[in-house]
């Protein structure tokens, strides 16, 4: 019998959405200076990619950490369905208070997925474009897992 | 130079591809359970993927060569241990290391870790990342060293 291995299962999802970076804590000029083009009052959009990493013991009967159908359905319901083809600033309640930067999107997605029942949520990685990405591993920063 | 006094841990990653077929079926389950749990992956004729394997080795570069380990050597290990065993094979029937296991990405990654760990003698095997498709992959970090089984309770 082989010893249990430390394994993370990753799944990649996509959604497209618009946003505007504008902070209520900053003045008009300051917003334009800090956010540049992203402060355009009409907003703009991205094709986001979300990678969700979970861990847990591999069920010997199925060979799986979590059934993909369960993970897919959970992420679809909690994140993709509410976020896809939406204006994040208006249609996601949390982003009426916080600026929908990809940092904050990453944290919000992590919070929406942390109760996934079949495995432990390890990390969320979000690509805003193919050229920039952000990762969040919870309050502990993933320090206990890596 | 600074290297005489400081330690520089470097992570080196080599990527290979292999193509293989598999199917998911547990003889302990009924035919109906197998279909319900494994879905399309339970097709008795099997199906295939182009797997992408990224192997990361951690270590300090040898001051004489500037290398953690010779990439040529790593390439040969990957060829011998992984490609020769798994490329263009039916994983359920042709890879003895997977006998009796469902050849999921989790189990294949763990088998690859065990095969490589014994062969990589320079640096330390840090991570095995196996992509079954671009949208599904597994990271293996080796034996969990008696870490308690993870539960999904909220932190």
Please tag this protein with its features.
heterodimer, A: 146 residues, alpha+beta, Tetrahydropterin Synthase, Chain A, 5-stranded mixed β-sheet, 5 strands, 30% strand, B: 155 residues, elongated, disordered C terminus
Description:
- The complex is a heterodimer of chains A (146) and B (155).
- Chain A is an alpha+beta fold.
- In chain A, 27% of the residues lie in helices and 30% in strands.
- Chain A has a five-stranded mixed β-sheet with strand order 3-1-2-4-5.
- The longest helix of chain A is centred in the middle third of the chain and has 16 residues, at 68-83.
- Chain A starts with a strand and ends in a 10-residue tail after the last strand.
- Chain B has 155 residues and is of the alpha+beta class.
- Chain B has a single domain (2-140), classed as 6-pyruvoyl tetrahydropterin synthase/QueD (Tetrahydropterin Synthase, Chain A), CATH 3.30.479.
- Chain B contains four helices and five strands, in the order βαβαβααββ.
- Chain B is elongated, with a radius of gyration of 18 Å.
- Chains A and B meet through strand 1 of A and helix 4 and strand 5 of B.
Shape of chain B: elongated
**How much helicity do the residues of chain B have?**
25-40%
N-to-C CA distance of chain A = 25 Å
Strand content of chain A: 25-35%
- Counting structural domains of chain A, the number is 1
Radius of gyration of chain B: 18 Å
The helix/strand class of chain B is alpha+beta
| Integer count of domains of chain B | 1
Series of secondary-structure elements of chain A, N-terminal to C-terminal: EHEHEHHEE
Q: Can you tell me the CATH topology of chain B?
A: Tetrahydropterin Synthase, Chain A
CATH homologous superfamily placement of chain A: 6-pyruvoyl tetrahydropterin synthase/QueD
The main pleated sheet of chain A reads as: 5 strands, mixed
| DSSP, total strands of chain B | 5
Largest sheet of chain B: 5 strands, mixed
Superfamily at the CATH H level of chain B? 6-pyruvoyl tetrahydropterin synthase/QueD
Number of strands of chain A: 5
What is the chain-wise order of helices and strands of chain B? EHEHEHHEE
Proportion of residues in extended strands of chain B = 25-35%
Which two chains form the greatest contact, residue counts included? Answer: A-B, 35 and 37 residues
Strand order of the largest sheet of chain B: 3-1-2-4-5
């Amino acid at each position: 019998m082989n010893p249990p291995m430390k394994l993370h299962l990753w799944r990649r999802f996509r959604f497209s959405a618009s946003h505007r970076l504008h902070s209520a804590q900053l003045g008009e000029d300051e917003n334009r200076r800090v956010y540049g083009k992203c402060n355009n009052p009409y907003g703009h959009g991205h094709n986001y990619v979300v990678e969700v990493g979970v861990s847990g013991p591999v069920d010997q009967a199925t060979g799986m950490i979590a059934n993909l159908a369960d993970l897919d359905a959970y992420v679809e319901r909690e994140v993709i369905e509410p976020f896809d083809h939406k204006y994040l600033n208006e249609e996601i309640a949390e982003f009426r208070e916080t600026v929908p930067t990809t940092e904050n999107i990453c944290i919000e997605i992590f919070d929406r997925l942390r109760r996934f029942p079949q495995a432990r949520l390890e990390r969320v990685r979000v690509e805003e474009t193919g050229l920039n990405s952000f990762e969040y591993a919870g309050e502990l920063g993933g320090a206990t897992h890596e | 130079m600074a290297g005489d006094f400081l330690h520089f841990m470097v992570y080196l990653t080599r990527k290979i591809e292999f193509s293989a077929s598999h199917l998911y079926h547990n003889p302990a389950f009924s035919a109906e359970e197998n279909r319900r749990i494994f879905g399309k992956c339970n097709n008795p004729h099997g199906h295939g993927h182009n797997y992408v394997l990224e192997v990361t080795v951690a270590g300090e570069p040898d001051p004489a060569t500037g290398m953690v380990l010779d990439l040529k050597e790593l390439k040969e290990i990957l060829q011998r241990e992984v490609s020769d065993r798994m490329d263009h094979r039916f994983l359920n029937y042709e890879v003895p290391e997977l006998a009796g296991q469902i050849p999921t990405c989790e189990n294949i990654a763990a088998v690859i870790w065990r095969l490589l760990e014994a062969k990589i003698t320079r640096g330390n095997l840090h991570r095995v990342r196996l992509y079954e498709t671009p949208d599904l992959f597994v990271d293996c970090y080796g034996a969990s060293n008696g870490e308690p089984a993870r539960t999904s309770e909220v932190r």
